[in-house]
Amino acid sequence: MTATELLAQIADIGRDPVRGGYSRHLFDDADLALRKWFADRAQEQGLRLEQDGNANMWAWWDAGGTTASAAPAVVTGSHLDSVPGGGAYDGPLGVVSALAAVQALREEGFAPSRPIAVCVFAEEEGGRFNAPCLGSRLLVGDLGLPALADRVDAAGHSFAEVWAGAGRDVDRIGADPARLASIGVFVELHVEQGLDLAHRGAPVAVAEGILAHGRWRATFTGEGNHAGTTPMDGRRDPVVAAAQAVLAVRRIAAASGSLVRGTVGRVAAVPGGSNVIASRAQVWVDVRAAQEGEVRAAVARLAAELTEIAAAEGCDVELVEESFSPRVDFDPVLRARLARLLGDVPVIPTGAGHDAGILSAHVPSAMLFVRNPTGVSHAPGESAEAADIEAGVGALTAVLRELAGARG
Q: Buried (b) or exposed (e) across 35-58, using 16+ Cβ within 10 A?
Protein backbone atom coordinates (compact mmCIF):
# COMPACT_ATOMS: atom_id res chain seq x y z
CA MET A 1 0.00 0.00 0.00
CA THR A 2 1.42 3.40 -0.97
CA ALA A 3 1.87 6.31 1.40
CA THR A 4 -0.85 8.21 -0.48
CA GLU A 5 -3.26 5.32 0.03
CA LEU A 6 -2.39 5.16 3.72
CA LEU A 7 -3.07 8.89 4.07
CA ALA A 8 -6.45 8.36 2.43
CA GLN A 9 -7.34 5.83 5.12
CA ILE A 10 -7.08 8.48 7.84
CA ALA A 11 -8.40 11.42 5.83
CA ASP A 12 -11.71 11.56 7.71
CA ILE A 13 -10.30 11.15 11.23
CA GLY A 14 -10.27 14.32 13.30
CA ARG A 15 -11.70 16.73 10.73
CA ASP A 16 -12.50 20.07 12.38
CA PRO A 17 -15.87 21.41 11.16
CA VAL A 18 -15.28 24.83 12.72
CA ARG A 19 -11.65 25.64 11.95
CA GLY A 20 -11.28 23.48 8.87
CA GLY A 21 -8.43 21.03 8.53
CA TYR A 22 -7.79 18.64 11.42
CA SER A 23 -7.78 18.80 15.19
CA ARG A 24 -6.13 15.71 16.65
CA HIS A 25 -4.89 15.96 20.22
CA LEU A 26 -3.53 13.68 22.91
CA PHE A 27 -6.04 10.93 23.79
CA ASP A 28 -9.04 12.64 22.20
CA ASP A 29 -11.31 10.54 19.97
CA ALA A 30 -9.28 11.31 16.86
CA ASP A 31 -5.99 10.45 18.54
CA LEU A 32 -7.35 7.17 19.86
CA ALA A 33 -8.68 6.27 16.41
CA LEU A 34 -5.32 7.06 14.82
CA ARG A 35 -3.51 4.96 17.42
CA LYS A 36 -5.73 1.99 16.58
CA TRP A 37 -5.18 2.60 12.86
CA PHE A 38 -1.40 2.56 13.33
CA ALA A 39 -1.54 -0.59 15.45
CA ASP A 40 -3.63 -2.34 12.80
CA ARG A 41 -1.27 -1.34 9.98
CA ALA A 42 1.80 -2.40 11.96
CA GLN A 43 0.30 -5.78 12.75
CA GLU A 44 -0.68 -6.28 9.11
CA GLN A 45 2.99 -5.84 8.21
CA GLY A 46 4.05 -8.37 10.85
CA LEU A 47 5.74 -5.73 13.02
CA ARG A 48 5.95 -6.12 16.78
CA LEU A 49 3.94 -3.37 18.45
CA GLU A 50 4.78 -1.67 21.76
CA GLN A 51 3.55 1.37 23.68
CA ASP A 52 6.00 2.87 26.12
CA GLY A 53 5.24 4.62 29.39
CA ASN A 54 5.18 8.01 27.67
CA ALA A 55 2.40 7.09 25.20
CA ASN A 56 4.77 6.69 22.24
CA MET A 57 4.03 3.77 19.90
CA TRP A 58 6.77 1.53 18.45
CA ALA A 59 6.47 -0.98 15.61
CA TRP A 60 9.57 -3.19 15.46
CA TRP A 61 10.98 -5.15 12.55
CA ASP A 62 13.33 -7.80 13.95
CA ALA A 63 12.81 -9.50 17.29
CA GLY A 64 14.66 -8.17 20.30
CA GLY A 65 14.79 -4.63 19.00
CA THR A 66 14.52 -3.10 22.46
CA THR A 67 16.78 -5.41 24.43
CA ALA A 68 20.10 -4.15 25.72
CA SER A 69 21.96 -6.90 23.84
CA ALA A 70 20.44 -6.06 20.46
CA ALA A 71 22.24 -3.87 17.95
CA PRO A 72 21.05 -0.25 18.26
CA ALA A 73 18.07 0.21 15.97
CA VAL A 74 17.44 2.40 12.98
CA VAL A 75 14.30 4.32 13.97
CA THR A 76 12.05 6.40 11.76
CA GLY A 77 8.58 7.90 12.10
CA SER A 78 6.92 11.11 13.24
CA HIS A 79 3.59 11.98 14.90
CA LEU A 80 -0.14 11.74 14.17
CA ASP A 81 -1.48 14.64 16.26
CA SER A 82 -2.03 18.14 14.88
CA VAL A 83 -2.34 21.75 15.85
CA PRO A 84 -5.94 22.98 16.11
CA GLY A 85 -7.21 23.17 12.55
CA GLY A 86 -3.97 21.81 11.11
CA GLY A 87 -3.13 20.27 7.77
CA ALA A 88 -3.18 16.66 6.62
CA TYR A 89 0.58 16.14 6.20
CA ASP A 90 2.45 17.60 9.19
CA GLY A 91 3.29 14.44 11.12
CA PRO A 92 1.16 11.82 9.34
CA LEU A 93 3.28 12.03 6.18
CA GLY A 94 6.30 10.85 8.17
CA VAL A 95 4.37 7.97 9.70
CA VAL A 96 2.80 6.65 6.48
CA SER A 97 6.10 7.09 4.61
CA ALA A 98 7.87 5.04 7.28
CA LEU A 99 5.29 2.26 6.99
CA ALA A 100 5.52 2.34 3.19
CA ALA A 101 9.34 2.28 3.26
CA VAL A 102 9.44 -0.70 5.62
CA GLN A 103 6.91 -2.51 3.44
CA ALA A 104 9.02 -1.82 0.33
CA LEU A 105 12.13 -3.24 2.00
CA ARG A 106 10.31 -6.35 3.14
CA GLU A 107 8.84 -6.93 -0.31
CA GLU A 108 12.27 -6.69 -1.95
CA GLY A 109 13.58 -9.32 0.45
CA PHE A 110 15.89 -6.99 2.36
CA ALA A 111 17.24 -8.57 5.55
CA PRO A 112 18.40 -5.84 7.97
CA SER A 113 21.53 -6.38 10.02
CA ARG A 114 20.05 -4.33 12.85
CA PRO A 115 16.48 -3.70 14.02
CA ILE A 116 14.29 -1.12 12.28
CA ALA A 117 11.44 0.57 14.14
CA VAL A 118 8.65 2.94 13.18
CA CYS A 119 7.77 5.30 16.03
CA VAL A 120 4.71 7.49 16.54
CA PHE A 121 5.56 10.13 19.12
CA ALA A 122 2.81 11.43 21.39
CA GLU A 123 1.54 15.01 21.13
CA GLU A 124 4.36 16.55 19.12
CA GLU A 125 2.38 19.72 18.50
CA GLY A 126 1.44 20.27 22.14
CA GLY A 127 -2.09 21.16 21.05
CA ARG A 128 -3.84 19.90 24.18
CA PHE A 129 -1.49 20.82 27.03
CA ASN A 130 0.90 23.26 25.36
CA ALA A 131 3.80 20.87 25.83
CA PRO A 132 5.34 20.44 22.36
CA CYS A 133 7.28 17.25 21.54
CA LEU A 134 5.72 15.74 24.64
CA GLY A 135 6.52 12.09 23.96
CA SER A 136 10.10 12.60 22.84
CA ARG A 137 10.90 15.07 25.64
CA LEU A 138 9.53 12.67 28.24
CA LEU A 139 11.56 9.85 26.69
CA VAL A 140 14.89 11.66 26.89
CA GLY A 141 14.17 13.20 30.31
CA ASP A 142 13.81 16.82 29.23
CA LEU A 143 10.31 16.88 30.72
CA GLY A 144 8.66 15.13 33.64
CA LEU A 145 5.34 14.74 35.39
CA PRO A 146 5.90 17.60 37.90
CA ALA A 147 5.92 20.10 35.01
CA LEU A 148 2.71 18.63 33.57
CA ALA A 149 0.54 17.57 36.48
CA ASP A 150 -1.21 20.93 36.93
CA ARG A 151 -1.72 21.75 33.25
CA VAL A 152 -5.29 21.75 31.99
CA ASP A 153 -6.76 21.55 28.51
CA ALA A 154 -9.35 23.90 27.00
CA ALA A 155 -12.15 21.95 28.67
CA GLY A 156 -10.54 22.22 32.11
CA HIS A 157 -9.34 18.61 32.30
CA SER A 158 -5.97 18.17 34.00
CA PHE A 159 -3.10 16.33 32.37
CA ALA A 160 -3.16 13.65 35.06
CA GLU A 161 -6.91 13.20 34.64
CA VAL A 162 -6.65 12.77 30.86
CA TRP A 163 -3.67 10.44 31.16
CA ALA A 164 -5.40 8.19 33.67
CA GLY A 165 -8.66 8.36 31.72
CA ALA A 166 -6.88 6.82 28.74
CA GLY A 167 -5.81 3.89 30.90
CA ARG A 168 -2.23 5.11 31.23
CA ASP A 169 -0.13 4.84 34.39
CA VAL A 170 1.25 8.21 35.50
CA ASP A 171 3.94 6.39 37.48
CA ARG A 172 5.50 5.21 34.18
CA ILE A 173 5.91 8.74 32.82
CA GLY A 174 9.46 9.98 32.45
CA ALA A 175 12.97 9.31 31.19
CA ASP A 176 13.46 5.91 29.57
CA PRO A 177 17.24 5.43 29.28
CA ALA A 178 17.06 1.78 28.19
CA ARG A 179 14.76 2.59 25.29
CA LEU A 180 16.83 5.62 24.34
CA ALA A 181 19.94 3.44 24.30
CA SER A 182 18.18 1.08 21.88
CA ILE A 183 18.05 3.84 19.24
CA GLY A 184 21.21 3.88 17.14
CA VAL A 185 20.03 6.51 14.66
CA PHE A 186 16.79 8.41 14.04
CA VAL A 187 15.53 9.76 10.71
CA GLU A 188 12.27 11.69 10.43
CA LEU A 189 10.56 12.47 7.13
CA HIS A 190 8.38 15.57 7.15
CA VAL A 191 6.50 17.79 4.76
CA GLU A 192 8.42 21.03 4.29
CA GLN A 193 6.91 23.94 6.18
CA GLY A 194 7.87 26.61 3.69
CA LEU A 195 8.65 27.18 0.01
CA ASP A 196 12.37 26.50 -0.18
CA LEU A 197 11.99 23.28 -2.18
CA ALA A 198 9.30 24.77 -4.39
CA HIS A 199 11.66 27.61 -5.29
CA ARG A 200 14.50 25.15 -5.93
CA GLY A 201 12.33 22.85 -8.02
CA ALA A 202 13.38 19.87 -5.89
CA PRO A 203 11.05 17.23 -4.42
CA VAL A 204 13.22 16.15 -1.46
CA ALA A 205 15.81 17.71 0.83
CA VAL A 206 17.89 16.88 3.90
CA ALA A 207 17.50 19.14 6.95
CA GLU A 208 20.44 21.23 8.12
CA GLY A 209 19.07 22.22 11.52
CA ILE A 210 16.23 23.80 13.51
CA LEU A 211 15.94 27.37 14.76
CA ALA A 212 15.95 27.99 18.51
CA HIS A 213 12.39 28.49 19.72
CA GLY A 214 10.19 28.72 22.79
CA ARG A 215 6.71 29.45 24.07
CA TRP A 216 5.72 31.91 26.79
CA ARG A 217 2.44 32.71 28.52
CA ALA A 218 1.70 36.31 29.47
CA THR A 219 -1.08 36.74 32.03
CA PHE A 220 -2.55 40.22 32.57
CA THR A 221 -4.65 40.66 35.71
CA GLY A 222 -7.02 43.60 36.02
CA GLU A 223 -10.46 44.18 37.52
CA GLY A 224 -13.59 42.49 36.25
CA ASN A 225 -16.60 44.75 36.02
CA HIS A 226 -19.78 45.64 34.14
CA ALA A 227 -19.37 46.73 30.51
CA GLY A 228 -22.24 49.20 30.73
CA THR A 229 -21.75 50.86 34.09
CA THR A 230 -18.00 51.24 34.37
CA PRO A 231 -16.64 54.57 33.02
CA MET A 232 -13.91 54.31 30.40
CA ASP A 233 -11.46 56.24 32.56
CA GLY A 234 -12.09 54.00 35.58
CA ARG A 235 -11.21 50.66 34.06
CA ARG A 236 -8.35 48.22 34.64
CA ASP A 237 -8.94 46.17 31.51
CA PRO A 238 -6.49 43.32 30.92
CA VAL A 239 -7.82 42.73 27.41
CA VAL A 240 -6.65 46.20 26.37
CA ALA A 241 -3.21 45.35 27.72
CA ALA A 242 -3.28 41.99 25.94
CA ALA A 243 -4.17 43.66 22.65
CA GLN A 244 -1.16 45.92 22.94
CA ALA A 245 0.98 42.90 23.82
CA VAL A 246 0.04 41.20 20.54
CA LEU A 247 1.24 44.23 18.61
CA ALA A 248 4.40 44.42 20.72
CA VAL A 249 5.32 40.83 19.85
CA ARG A 250 5.11 41.57 16.15
CA ARG A 251 6.97 44.88 16.42
CA ILE A 252 9.83 43.51 18.51
CA ALA A 253 10.31 40.45 16.31
CA ALA A 254 10.30 42.52 13.12
CA ALA A 255 12.98 44.83 14.56
CA SER A 256 15.20 42.00 15.83
CA GLY A 257 16.50 40.42 12.63
CA SER A 258 15.39 38.63 9.48
CA LEU A 259 15.29 35.18 11.11
CA VAL A 260 13.50 36.27 14.30
CA ARG A 261 9.86 35.28 14.31
CA GLY A 262 7.31 36.29 16.95
CA THR A 263 3.74 34.96 16.92
CA VAL A 264 0.62 35.13 19.05
CA GLY A 265 -1.77 32.37 18.02
CA ARG A 266 -3.86 32.09 21.15
CA VAL A 267 -5.58 34.68 23.36
CA ALA A 268 -8.04 34.01 26.20
CA ALA A 269 -10.12 36.33 28.37
CA VAL A 270 -11.68 35.38 31.73
CA PRO A 271 -14.62 35.14 32.25
CA GLY A 272 -15.13 35.62 28.51
CA GLY A 273 -18.53 37.34 28.38
CA SER A 274 -19.23 39.91 25.67
CA ASN A 275 -20.79 42.35 28.18
CA VAL A 276 -18.11 41.88 30.84
CA ILE A 277 -14.80 43.64 31.43
CA ALA A 278 -12.44 40.71 31.88
CA SER A 279 -10.60 40.14 35.13
CA ARG A 280 -7.77 38.30 33.42
CA ALA A 281 -6.40 37.95 29.89
CA GLN A 282 -3.74 35.58 28.65
CA VAL A 283 -1.56 35.73 25.55
CA TRP A 284 0.58 32.83 24.37
CA VAL A 285 3.75 33.90 22.57
CA ASP A 286 5.97 31.87 20.24
CA VAL A 287 9.45 33.28 19.53
CA ARG A 288 12.05 31.74 17.19
CA ALA A 289 15.45 32.76 15.88
CA ALA A 290 18.65 31.32 14.45
CA GLN A 291 20.38 31.40 17.85
CA GLU A 292 19.22 31.02 21.44
CA GLY A 293 20.66 34.42 22.40
CA GLU A 294 18.48 36.16 19.81
CA VAL A 295 15.37 34.50 21.20
CA ARG A 296 16.29 35.42 24.77
CA ALA A 297 17.06 39.01 23.81
CA ALA A 298 13.73 39.43 22.01
CA VAL A 299 11.82 37.95 24.96
CA ALA A 300 13.69 40.22 27.40
CA ARG A 301 12.64 43.26 25.37
CA LEU A 302 9.10 41.94 25.29
CA ALA A 303 9.03 41.41 29.05
CA ALA A 304 10.11 45.00 29.67
CA GLU A 305 7.47 46.34 27.31
CA LEU A 306 4.73 44.17 28.79
CA THR A 307 5.51 45.59 32.23
CA GLU A 308 5.06 49.11 30.86
CA ILE A 309 1.86 48.17 29.03
CA ALA A 310 0.34 46.58 32.13
CA ALA A 311 1.23 49.52 34.36
CA ALA A 312 -0.36 51.99 31.93
CA GLU A 313 -3.62 50.03 32.08
CA GLY A 314 -3.53 49.59 35.86
CA CYS A 315 -2.92 45.85 35.53
CA ASP A 316 -0.35 43.34 36.69
CA VAL A 317 1.48 41.01 34.31
CA GLU A 318 3.35 37.73 34.65
CA LEU A 319 5.40 36.22 31.81
CA VAL A 320 6.08 32.48 32.21
CA GLU A 321 8.21 30.28 29.97
CA GLU A 322 6.29 27.13 29.08
CA SER A 323 8.86 25.48 26.83
CA PHE A 324 12.20 26.18 25.18
CA SER A 325 14.28 24.31 22.60
CA PRO A 326 17.80 25.51 21.73
CA ARG A 327 19.09 25.58 18.19
CA VAL A 328 19.61 22.15 16.67
CA ASP A 329 22.32 21.30 14.17
CA PHE A 330 21.71 17.80 12.92
CA ASP A 331 24.62 15.35 13.01
CA PRO A 332 26.93 16.69 10.26
CA VAL A 333 28.37 13.30 9.30
CA LEU A 334 24.94 11.68 9.02
CA ARG A 335 23.56 14.73 7.23
CA ALA A 336 26.31 14.67 4.61
CA ARG A 337 26.01 10.90 4.21
CA LEU A 338 22.31 11.11 3.46
CA ALA A 339 22.70 14.03 1.07
CA ARG A 340 25.31 12.07 -0.94
CA LEU A 341 23.21 8.89 -0.86
CA LEU A 342 20.22 10.74 -2.29
CA GLY A 343 22.19 12.36 -5.10
CA ASP A 344 23.38 15.56 -3.45
CA VAL A 345 19.88 16.83 -2.68
CA PRO A 346 19.53 20.30 -1.12
CA VAL A 347 20.37 20.75 2.57
CA ILE A 348 18.02 23.33 4.07
CA PRO A 349 17.17 24.75 7.54
CA THR A 350 13.76 24.76 9.19
CA GLY A 351 12.07 27.11 11.61
CA ALA A 352 9.78 24.38 12.97
CA GLY A 353 10.43 22.13 15.93
CA HIS A 354 10.40 18.33 15.58
CA ASP A 355 10.90 15.19 17.64
CA ALA A 356 14.10 14.64 15.63
CA GLY A 357 15.42 17.84 17.17
CA ILE A 358 14.78 16.54 20.68
CA LEU A 359 16.47 13.20 19.97
CA SER A 360 19.45 14.86 18.25
CA ALA A 361 21.04 15.75 21.59
CA HIS A 362 21.18 12.05 22.46
CA VAL A 363 21.47 10.01 19.24
CA PRO A 364 22.60 10.79 15.67
CA SER A 365 19.49 12.24 14.02
CA ALA A 366 18.49 13.56 10.61
CA MET A 367 15.43 14.76 8.72
CA LEU A 368 14.15 14.52 5.17
CA PHE A 369 11.77 17.11 3.75
CA VAL A 370 9.19 16.62 1.01
CA ARG A 371 8.20 19.60 -1.15
CA ASN A 372 5.12 21.59 -0.15
CA PRO A 373 3.85 23.49 -3.23
CA THR A 374 1.79 25.96 -1.20
CA GLY A 375 4.38 26.54 1.52
CA VAL A 376 1.46 26.56 3.99
CA SER A 377 1.70 24.54 7.20
CA HIS A 378 -0.25 24.31 10.46
CA ALA A 379 -3.30 25.22 8.38
CA PRO A 380 -5.74 23.46 6.02
CA GLY A 381 -3.83 24.69 2.94
CA GLU A 382 -0.86 22.45 3.71
CA SER A 383 -0.10 20.30 0.68
CA ALA A 384 2.11 17.71 -1.01
CA GLU A 385 1.82 16.17 -4.46
CA ALA A 386 1.51 12.38 -4.82
CA ALA A 387 4.66 12.20 -6.97
CA ASP A 388 6.67 14.10 -4.35
CA ILE A 389 5.30 11.90 -1.57
CA GLU A 390 6.47 8.81 -3.45
CA ALA A 391 9.85 10.47 -4.03
CA GLY A 392 10.06 10.99 -0.28
CA VAL A 393 9.18 7.35 0.39
CA GLY A 394 11.85 6.30 -2.11
CA ALA A 395 14.41 8.50 -0.35
CA LEU A 396 13.47 7.14 3.07
CA THR A 397 13.60 3.57 1.76
CA ALA A 398 17.13 4.16 0.46
CA VAL A 399 18.15 5.69 3.79
CA LEU A 400 16.81 2.77 5.83
CA ARG A 401 18.48 0.30 3.49
CA GLU A 402 21.78 2.14 3.88
CA LEU A 403 21.64 2.58 7.64
CA ALA A 404 20.32 -0.89 8.50
CA GLY A 405 22.78 -2.60 6.19
CA ALA A 406 22.13 -6.14 5.02
CA ARG A 407 22.97 -9.49 6.49
CA GLY A 408 25.72 -11.29 4.64
A: bebbbebbeeeebbebebbbbbbb
Strand (E) or helix (H) holding 387: helix 386-404
Looking at the DSSP bridge assignments, the partners of residue 286 are: 215, 263
367: which strand partners?
188
Band of pLDDT at residue 70, cut at 50, 70 and 90: low
Q: What region, left, alpha or beta, does residue 316 occupy, with left being phi > 0 and alpha being psi -120 to 50 degrees?
A: beta
Beta-bridged to residue 179, according to DSSP, are none
Tens of pLDDT, residue by residue over 84-125, are 999 999 999 999 999 999 999 999 999 999 999 999 999 999
Give buried/exposed letters for 273-288 (b at 16+ CB in 10 A, else e). eeeebbbbbbbbbbbb
Sort strands 261-270 and 276-277 into parallel, antiparallel or unpaired.
Answer: unpaired
pLDDT digits (tens, 9 = 90+) for 10-49: 999 999 999 999 999 999 999 999 999 999 999 999 999 9
**Helix (H, G, I), strand (E, B), or coil: what is residue 371?**
coil
Residue 38's closest CA among 29, 47, 25, 28? 47
**Dist. CA 359–CA 367, nearest whole Å:** 11
User: What are the b/e assignments for 1-24, b being 16+ CB within 10 Å?
Assistant: ebbbebbeebeebbebeeeebbbb
- pTM here is 0.84
Q: How far apart are CA 325 and CA 178, in angstroms?
A: 23
In DSSP notation, 314-366 reads T-EEEEEEEEEE--EE--HHHHHHHHHHTTS--EEEESS--HHHHHTTTS-EE
